[in-house]
Design brief:
mainly alpha, 2 domains, coiled coil
Length: about 140
């Protein structure tokens, strides 16, 4: 590793310590990657790409030392909860729509049959065949 890379890593570790102890000097003090990057004086993407291990370490320390869920994880959990509700609502709606399709199909069949019977009219008298009486 070159000197600049090593310097960035040490600034990030120092920034982690300041944020976790509540002594932020260059950021708003929130326990996020954005605040960590600002506190360390590095670009956020450098933290995300070149120092992803330090980002993960930061989030792990947030979990263990402060017993808090990191902000990004909290937002993701909220999104997952909302999506699960949406899926459940859509499943219920699909079930209801399937039942409606079945009822409408049956209603259509009944109406079609009734229309056919009305078009045929009453049965003609000439097609009635009388039963023969038995003589025994």
């Amino acid at each position: 590793m070159n000197h600049q890379h090593q310097d960035e890593r040490s600034r990030i570790r120092e920034a982690m310590d300041r944020l976790l102890t509540g002594q932020a000097t260059a950021s708003n003090g929130s326990l996020t990657v954005v605040a960590l990057a600002a506190e360390a004086g590095v670009h956020r993407m450098a933290l995300q790409k070149r120092h992803a291990d330090l980002k993960n370490e930061f989030y792990e320390r947030v979990r263990t030392e402060t017993r808090q869920v990191p902000e990004s994880e909290r937002r993701l959990r909220e999104t997952v909860t909302k999506l699960k509700e949406t899926v459940a609502n859509q499943r219920a709606e699909i079930k209801e729509l399937r039942q409606l399709v079945t009822r409408l199909t049956l209603a259509s069949a009944v109406l079609t049959r009734d229309d056919y019977q009305q078009a045929q009219g009453p049965p003609a008298a000439d097609n009635v065949v009388p039963f023969r009486r038995s003589t025994s």
